[in-house]
Design a protein that fits this description.
The chain is mostly helical. It has helices at 2-10, 22-57, 59-93, 98-125, 127-135, 143-159, 162-168, 172-193, 198-224, 228-254. It is globular, with a radius of gyration of 22 Å. It starts with a helix and ends in a 5-residue tail after the last helix. 31% of the residues are buried.
Length: 259
């Protein structure tokens, strides 16, 4: 009621009349259904993975994995929300100029990678100390999982700007199909491997993320014409630098005296 009153008050010069036109409503419903399904599939995939981790690996390992996911997801939610609030309106304004849109997307992918890769690399490196500080020593076994998930997040960062891009140019259904395919791949991998160990579980999660990344690169190539080499070059330098930092830090940590 308040929204309708504000609309009427702000547009006194417009003649308001009742009309029946279902086409805009249908377009909105199609977009909403695809976007909702895409979000639901993405959320279900993670819950599905954690549930079967508990079934096959036991509640203790599932608890450590759940803590690792929550720690990584907290950083991801803060950073992804901040980026998406700027990215989607910007790309939507350029949807009719494909050349500028492609340049803006490539710039956003490179910028997001340069900012977020070091953040998640740092999270993975300091995971033992951070978990010790926040949750206590009994949760220390979760630190290798945080390290692995932080590395896997690099694939999510590389494809993160693609969802706002595809949505802004009317291909939200592609995003939906990618997330549904991810859920299907996750289900198949769990059924085949039965998550025989925690490292198998992490390999399944990382493998599915890689397949999702590859599918996203292919979709962008088909929809926008951006080559796969261009997409990889945009994120290669921060990716290589961050991975190198994680590897060198872990090697250096192994030479430190154990208290």
């Amino acid at each position: 009621v308040l929204g309708a009153a504000t609309l009427f008050g702000c547009t006194p010069h417009q003649r308001i009349r009742v009309t029946i036109n279902v086409r805009p409503v249908c377009d909105l419903l199609h977009y909403s259904a695809a976007a909702t399904t895409s979000l639901a599939a993405a959320q279900i995939s993670k819950r599905f993975f954690l549930f079967f981790s508990g079934v096959y690996l036991g509640t203790e390992i599932a608890g450590f994995l759940n803590l690792a996911f929550r720690l990584v997801d907290t950083v991801w939610a803060i950073s992804a929300t901040a980026v998406s609030q700027v990215l989607l309106p910007t790309l939507s304004q350029l949807q009719h100029d494909r050349l500028r849109l492609t340049k803006a997307y490539r710039l956003s992918a490179a910028s997001a990678s340069a900012i977020l890769y070091p953040a998640f690399a740092g999270l993975g490196v300091v995971a033992p100390e951070l978990i010790q500080l926040l949750f206590g020593s009994k949760w220390a076994p979760a630190s290798p999982y945080v390290f692995a998930l932080s590395a896997v997040t690099f694939l999510q960062i590389a494809r993160f700007p693609s969802a706002p891009l595809l949505s802004s140019i009317g291909y939200v259904r592609d995003v939906c199909l990618i997330n549904i395919a991810t859920l299907a791949c996750m289900s198949t991998a769990i059924a085949l491997t039965r998550l025989t160990s925690d490292y198998v579980a992490l390999a399944v999660w990382g493998g599915v993320e890689f397949i999702t990344f590859a599918a996203t690169v292919l979709i962008l190539h088909l929809r926008l014409g951006t080559t796969m080499s261009q997409q990889l070059n945009d994120v290669f330098v921060p990716f290589f630098a961050s991975i190198s930092m994680m590897v060198v830090t872990q090697i250096g940590r192994s030479f430190l005296p154990i208290e």
